[in-house]
Description:
Blueprint: H1 2-7, H2 10-33, H3 37-86, H4 88-92, H5 96-107, E1 112-119, E2 124-129, E3 138-146, E4 152-161, H6 163-213, H7 226-300, H8 306-337, E5 345-348, H9 349-366, E6 370-373, E7 379-382, H10 384-400, E8 406-414, E9 417-424, H11 431-434, H12 447-453, H13 461-471, E10 476-481, E11 485-495, E12 520-524, H14 528-540, E13 544-548, H15 551-560, E14 567-571, H16 580-589, E15 599-604, H17 609-618, E16 621-624, H18 629-649
Amino acid sequence: MSDSLETAPPAAAAAVAPTRARRAARSLGGRLGRLSLVQQLVLLAVLPAALAMLGTIAVLTRQYLAGVNDLMRANAQTVALQIATAAQSPLAHMDRRALLRIAQSGTFQPHVQQVQVWSEDGEIVANAETLDRQRSEGVQVVVPVAADDGQPSGKVMVEMSLAAVRSARNTVWFNVLLVLGASLLGVVLAGAWAARRISAPIRRLGEAVDRLGAGEEAQVPVEGTAEVRHLQAGFNQAASALAESQRLLQSRIEVATAELARKNQQLEVASQAKTRLLAAASHDLRQPLHALTLFSDGLANGEHDPVRLQRIAHIRECVDSLDRLFSELLNLSQLDAGVLQPQWVDFPLDGLLDEISRNFRPVAEQQDLRLVVRKTELWVRSDYVMLSRVLSNLVSNSLRHTLEGGVLVGVRRRGRSARIDVWDTGVGIAPQHQAKVFEEFYQVDPQRTQAARGTRGMGLGLATVQRLAGLLNTRVELRSRPGRGTCVSITVRTVPAPETPVPVPAAAAAEEDIRFDGLRVMVIDDERTILEGLQVVLGQWGAQVLAAQNRAEALSLADQWAAPPDVVVSDLLLQGGDNGLDVLAALERHPHGIGPHTARLLVTGETKPDRLREVAAAGVTVLYKPVSPRALRQAIAAQVAGLRAAGAAR
């Protein structure tokens, strides 16, 4: 950098100086800008006064000291002339003693340090110095000594001490500094007083602005100079207008808040009414639907007439359609109640996909569609039941909206995650509808697929998928092209497969092979038709059935039986406000009641969030109406097998 400056041409070097000056000016301006108004005003008052006083005092002091110095030189000249006059005769006769006395007499003069008398050829013929005063810096004056004929016969040198000059200089500077300090102090005090007088109204105005910014009302007194008074008056007017606007806005906000609260209350009432309506309708409709499910299965057993079997199959299709609608409502109610919490486990994804394939392949074949589920060796960490419900809803939704072709379920690894894709060749979803299909009760032109399939949904499948995915800490992605198909994807976390192979349980026996011969089952339900249906179905499976409509009948049976039942299946809501949980507790307290070896099942059609939370907290296995005979058989078999395994372990 220095080399380049040294070798730069004069024009470039000249351009650097203004740049540095501007940079220095900006730096000085920045430092001055950090000073308060009072400090800037005081500095503005003090700086010119101080510079003027310093300049004036410096000039006057210089002149005074120069005059003192000239005076000392003139005194030395006078003393030298006197000695030269007295030394004329002794110097002509070379009377050294007389010359020495004359020189010594000269040293008695004030401020004289040394006197010398020189001959014409420069020889010092007399020299006298002060002995009672300390030598210091001095000024020397040389004058000639004239002879009788007027020709110079020698010289006299007198050295005058400048200590008096230095003392005078010190005294002058002390007085100068004293006067300057007193003057500056007066200027500072005067400037500070004037600055505060000027800045006080502005400071009060700034404080009022701060209060106004904090939402408080603020007014300032009108005082000071004309300009400041004008500014204060304008501020007061603006503050008054702003306060009035704020009061008006506050009143409007209060009115809007009250209106919003009223509307929220109306929405809450409407939401509660909707919940009660859905719960009541769901419960009241599930009761006969549950009985219809049981009776349709009872009719099919032992029937060989093809016409009757076909009619029974139609009845089952209607029941399945109603079951699907109620299941969507139940899933939504469970999510609203907050009773679903993920249970994180590691499991092979292939097992879940096999279950999806077994459950939906008959549905696809019935609709002349293909269902392809790709095998995978990946293990994942998730909630098995929730992930199963998500994939079941996606596959069911795809089959419902696919008229030809089929559905493909595949898995792709994505780093530490796996993406499960459900592809279909269905009608597709237009771009303007793709973000809305995850909303509750939203359906995109359902008439086309309904007319083709004869099924009807409620628009809750994808909404349930979205909310379950939120519980699983993942997201759902949708890609679709109208007329070409849709792909819905969900991402799950993968885990390493265990080193020791996990034994795969043997496949469950076929539904028709599960028998309950000799099994004692108590069923409790306030609906006579449901009791009859359960007696028919359980009796066909070989079970011994004990039926009761209420708590009194159940306890009466407990008084009579020789041994407690192996399984108790109870409705949740019974007559007179009673519920199945209380009946189970009463049977446990009965002297001949049920014990730890009795399996317990609750059956309910409730969708109220508080009821669902109560059921979830009970820790009893729950089946939601309408319960298919297959689900009932599997639940009873699982409960009995679990209790027997626990007994064998003990």
